[in-house]
Design a protein that fits this description.
By secondary structure, the protein is mostly helical. Helices cover 72% and strands 0% of the residues. It has 18 helices and no strands. Helix 6 packs antiparallel against helix 7. The radius of gyration is 23 Å and the shape is globular. The termini are far apart. 40% of the residues are buried.
């Protein structure tokens, strides 16, 4: 799971750099989309969800019952948006209305954690948080295994980060690091991953200088790991540090490190991997800010050549199109191509918007995420009008 988190950070770098001109930065809601609160515009379904939440508010973590587990199961099923229809069946043996106290078993802990993961897959992070806390309460009630507690803390830290509760996320990740440092060797992967995640969470708060100080020992430790996973971890650290330096205005240093990490990652996952393409978009933005317009365009086009093959519903595809289009706009180039690119991006955005019924908060957030595309279209129309 820890490697996956690192790769996800690498994937989201193009969204995280508002200090870099040319990067298509999205509003905070894009990074932490809200749960489907209005149930797709279905008022009856929304009332059902609200009733299940009220039941859960009365659940005592110290006295877990089958009824509490049932409420969570019903909430998962009721609130999912295009989720797994087999989810309810998988947990059916646990979801009864019996009010007997539920044994504090590893099975119950795993159930809460599985449900938390299911909620997070639907971007229902506020719904997943209390499940992690229920699991922690059950583990702490016995002789807790520090490793198990650390794993739950780690998941909870990321849950809080996705809710944009940045200081709480940082504190929880530091607690994770303290636990792992007690039971694992100093250079173990889990310890190093927690250190890198703390750096990311500091950057998420704009504390780039503090985060930078964490990278030197992290790089020194990861450079000793020569297996495939260790080398990929090292590549991600290089890209993260490159992002950090570029965000501080040290563009040449940041570009060099980001490119170093990108090359190392490409050697292991393939040059046409979407992750690598997203990284190229970020490098393009750094290059553009240094005034190397032609070179930046080459990098944007290399990224788009891969991401244009992604499904139309994939927002990464739209961001890649928008990145090239706005770069061409900024340099006064190819207005006809710009308009054609933005037409594709807008079509993709409308498809995503059709997932939402009514004018729910999620629909509003989706519309807000598409606003840069529509604004660029207005400018493209103006640019073409000026040529006539």
């Amino acid at each position: 799971m820890h490697l996956l988190r690192g790769l996800l950070l690498f994937l989201t770098l193009t969204l995280a750099g508002p200090a870099l001109a040319g990067v298509s930065a999205l509003p905070a809601t894009a990074r932490a989309p809200r749960c489907i609160e209005l149930a797709g515009g279905d008022a009856a379904r929304a009332r059902y969800i609200a009733a299940r939440r009220a039941e859960l508010a009365a659940c005592d973590p110290a006295k877990p019952t089958l009824e509490c587990a049932a409420s969570w199961g019903k909430l998962v099923v009721a609130s999912r948006d295009g989720g797994d229809p087999a989810l309810a069946e998988r947990y059916a043996p646990l979801f009864h209305t019996d009010r007997r106290p539920m044994a504090r078993t590893p099975q119950l802990v795993r159930t809460y954690l599985h449900l938390a993961g299911a909620m997070e897959q639907q971007a229902c992070f506020t719904e997943g948080e209390p499940l992690y806390r229920l699991a922690l309460a059950l583990v702490d009630a016995h002789k807790p295994d520090p490793g198990e507690v650390a794993d739950i803390y780690y998941a909870l830290a990321w849950n809080l980060s996705y809710q944009e509760r940045r200081k709480e996320a940082e504190a929880t990740m530091r607690a994770t690091l303290a636990l792992w440092s007690r039971i694992l060797p100093a250079g173990s992967r889990d310890v190093l991953q927690a250190q890198q995640d703390i750096a990311y969470m500091l950057e998420d708060q704009g504390r780039f200088a503090e985060a930078e100080a964490l990278y030197a020992p992290l790089l020194a430790a990861r450079e000793t790991l020569t297996d495939d996973r260790g080398m990929l971890d090292l590549a991600v650290t290089y890209t993260n540090l490159g992002y950090n330096l570029a965000s501080q205005g040290r563009l040449a240093e940041g570009e060099a490190l980001f490119r170093k990490g990108l090359d190392a990652a490409a050697a292991r996952v393939g040059d046409s991997d979407p992750m690598i393409a997203k990284g190229r978009s970020y490098v393009a933005a750094i290059i553009a800010k240094q005034g190397r317009t032609d070179e930046a365009e080459i990098w944007y086009r290399r990224a788009l050549a891969v991401l244009i093959r992604r499904p139309a519903m994939d927002p990464d595809r739209a961001r890649a199109i928008l990145g090239l289009a706005t770069h061409l706009q900024a340099s006064g180039r190819a207005p006809q191509e710009v308009r054609a690119l933005l037409r594709v991006a807008a079509d993709d955005a409308r498809l995503r918007q059709q997932l939402h019924t009514g004018f729910s908060r999620d629909a509003q957030a989706a519309l807000q995420r598409s606003a840069p595309i529509y604004a660029a279209q207005v400018r493209a129309a103006w640019d073409l009008a000026q040529l006539r």
